[in-house]
Amino acid sequence: MSDVLHIQTRAYPLHYTSIDRTVERVVLPGRGQLRPVPGVLGSVAYNAEETLDFDLTEIVQAAVSLPDITIVSCRSRILAAGGVLVSYALRHTTDLRTLDAHDLAALDATINRELREADRALLGEVLAAAKQSGVFAQVVVPPGGAEAADWTEVDPRAVRYNCHFITRDPAWEPDGRVPNLVLGRRCRILLPYTYAWDDDPSPDRIDDILTMLEPADIAVAQQSVLVGASVGGLRILTELAQATAGRLEGPEFRRFLDGVWADYHRLDAYRVESGQDHRATYIAARETIGLDGTHERAEKLLNHVNASLLAESSRRSEQLDGRLNRVAAALTVVASAAFLLDIAAFLWPDVSGLTKAVTVTGVTLLAAGMLGATIFWSRRASDEGPGDRSDGRVADGIRQRAGGARQDRGRVPAARPPGPLEIDR
Which residue stretches does the UniProt record annotate as biased composition, category Basic and acidic residues (predicted)? Predict the structure, then answer.
């Protein structure tokens, strides 16, 4: 068995208002029960950041197996905000020290795909059971998918993860493209999301090891929050681009964005709450995985989604106003026809039946014509919209400017001899 402890930590973005640390057990139908244990982020030095921890080792070992790999531990930590961390501790029969950084990353990626396929249903059951037991308060899910009451799992595309290799005196060299950054004493960044740690790899120290890994794992948790928000925003943009009929989700999207940014910035407080050694590793991990760039791109995308929702809401409001105006116009025409019939009956009370029939028919035809004309013109105005009605004025302005430009061509001064190159600073 290799003397390297391989740990994968996944970050599942999940937005909730709080967690109930008084829940004593979580029942998994057909799998037994879990006992949550209140905990804290051990690397936070100033204000304690509470967590709720689950030991999933037994149920994972019973449900998941990989060739040449031993699952020695599986822990889940529900953060106070932003999501859930799931950490696998693995032992390999092969000697990982003989691999370089790229081979390690490729091996880790393969294992991660196999693990995620094998435990997807299990972890979904764990999260759903935790929600059913009252661990999460007021879960907020991205719009466009399942309702919060029907929520069962986190979108797999939003899940990000780190891989860590813990051993004494790690010999792996970082990739040449990794920037030279200030790190904590025991950390070495081999590739983005790939870390080597100089420490005792004994699984009996799993609690201390997970505390050591927290700076990098908090950074990847922030990344997952942004990616999850972007996935939800893209789903809405796709629906708007396809003109999918259905209710608008503007208020739900605003609440979702509020939860996203609140959780992201609460996780970001780690940079000021953590100790000096952990803080250096956290800041370096942020820069290596490009967290600030992800933040900028996600913010642009979500602002665009918000603007598109507002535009679609305005368009649907205009359509509704047009329908209401047509209904009001139709009611006005009908009321006018009824008023005309009342006047006719008052002025000619003793006319023959033929005269009454002719009068009623004439008023009815007049009302029908007025009603058709009203509906036709209101629909035409609604379909054209304000932009269409201004097209003529815009075209006239373009033609006027073009004519003026043709008149000015005769007044262009003669070209002067070329001088030195001028650069606009």
Answer: 381-399
